Amino acid sequence: MEYVCLGCGERRGIDELLYTCPSCGGVYLLEDLDFDKLAALRTGPEWRALFDARAATRTTALRGIFRFYELMAPVLEEEDIVYLGEGNTPIVEAAPVLRDAVGIPFAFKNDGQNPSASFKDRGMACAFSYLKALVRKHGWDEVLTVCASTGDTSAAAALYASYVGGPVKSVVLLPHGKVTPQQLSQPLGSGATVLEIPGVFDDCMKVVEHLAENYRVALLNSKNSWRILGQESYAFEVAQWYGWDMKDQCVFVPIGNAGNVTAIMAGFLKLLRLGIIDSLPRVIGVQSHHADPVWRYYSQPDPATRTYAPVTVQPSVAQAAMIGNPVSFPRVKALADSFIAEGGERAFCVVQVTEQEIMDAMIRGNRHGHIACTQGGECLAGLIKARKLGLVSPGEHAVLDATAHSLKFAGFQDMYFTNSFPPEYGVTPDASLANAPALVVSPEDKARLSPEAYTLAAAEAVVARLGLAKKA
Ligand SMILES: *Cc1c(COP(=O)(O)O)cnc(C)c1O
Ligand SMILES: [Zn+2]
Among the four residues 77, 197, 216, 436, which has the most C-beta atoms within 10 Å? Predict the structure, then answer.
């Protein structure tokens, strides 16, 4: 395998952990030099049969994202592969009532059911497997992994580092007060060194880039192309779940640093090139109006004159995607171009949604049995917006990336239910959806009554509240 620079095209070997091109500063993609040989090795149907058979394997190394080993990082030895149960996350079709209300069949892929409760585990499993291989090869006695994070990258990095242990140590840099309490508890629980600075994610990113350029640290942000590689597994799983038939499928992905959306496009392109699928799905990126540089770029109609500019982010409930200057933007452009070249003009687009739409969609989704985080809500809002704009038709089916577990973002649900959003978010809750616990017996009554009388009083209070009818 080799690193290929998207800026100047220069290639380098993978003996070293590289993030950006030393010649031009561009970002890398990893390329398997033997990829064309894979096409000669097996036909499309033979690859499908292999991956389908592997779904039943008991070999730990091939149970997670490395079910698709040959498509991912076929340079890694089995002993180096780190498996914490990531990947193969469920795809849950929308509850019928919700599906009918939205007007198009769709499903959530629950990437919040990964070990650290977000899709970031896919990339970390690959990056840490590679790191383990490097440590073994070079006999390093200490490797300091660092990342900037909107919360989930650090949770995943800290989890995998603590599992691998030995020389591998984890340091995470967070924007102070800009990650949820649940997300903060994760790297703390894994024993990482947690450092904070005032500001937003983009500020943290500049600091770790400076560190990676000048000091001996292993950067685990999505500039690290090993992470992008691991995240391609999402595309492989979607294709496999739908019997390798991607016709009329639209895959919705929230865009923050743009690592995930590019990984997913890269994954589908690989499947197409090997004849494992015979058409691409459409990929539709979603951004909040409070952090929308990629949408702004693609909303300029003429591809020849589009210009990219970072934006200053406003507070967003889709906090994990609240990024004004995505490091993977050059990757988006490269992959969107390939996607459109192979799949036509409609194969890739980006829609913009409001904070209000994101919250309404998340609450609605979860009231119908889903477990979407705010970014998953962003995808549902994106689908509703795309329907309104006529970008998707009722004959299509959508797969929405619920990128993290709803529990990580419980605070935003709480603000919705208690109507306590700070004004910057611009979210007014639908009061009919508010939900709150009701205390039916006072602590004073509990203190006053005997245990038996207290149970009876509590039961009677429940009966009165629910208006229960007595059994005949
Ligand atoms: C990181 C993250 C995103 C954004 O993904 P990018 O690869 O940065 O575009 C979206 N949702 C969740 C839950 C995340 O953790
Ligand atoms: Zn370069």
Answer: 197
Residue after which a domain boundary falls, among 197, 225, 253: 225
Instruction: Write 6-9 long-range contacts (CB < 8 A, 24+).
Output: 6/330, 6/331, 6/334, 7/330
What CA–CA distance (Å, rounded) separates 105 from 39?
34
User: Nearest ligand to the C-alpha of residue 12?
Assistant: 2
| Residue 19: predicted pLDDT | 87
**255 Cβ below 6 A of ligand 1:** yes
110 within domain boundaries: yes
CA of 404 to the centre of ligand 1 (A): 8
57 domain residue, yes or no: no
Task: Determine the atom of ligand 1 nearest the C-alpha atom of 263.
Answer: 7
Domain range for residue 267? Answer: 64-118+227-412
The answer, as to whether pTM is greater than 0.70, is yes
The yes-or-no verdict on residue 338 having pLDDT over 90 is yes
- Among the residue ranges 17-26, 236-245, 460-469, the one predicted with the least confidence is 17-26
Average per-residue pLDDT for the chain? 96
Query: Domain count of the chain?
Result: 3
Q: For residue 271, what pLDDT is reported?
A: 98
**Nearest ligand (C-alpha, residue 18):** 2
Q: Compute φ and ψ for 103, nearest 5 degrees.
A: 90, 15
**CB of 378 closer than 6 A to ligand 1?**
no
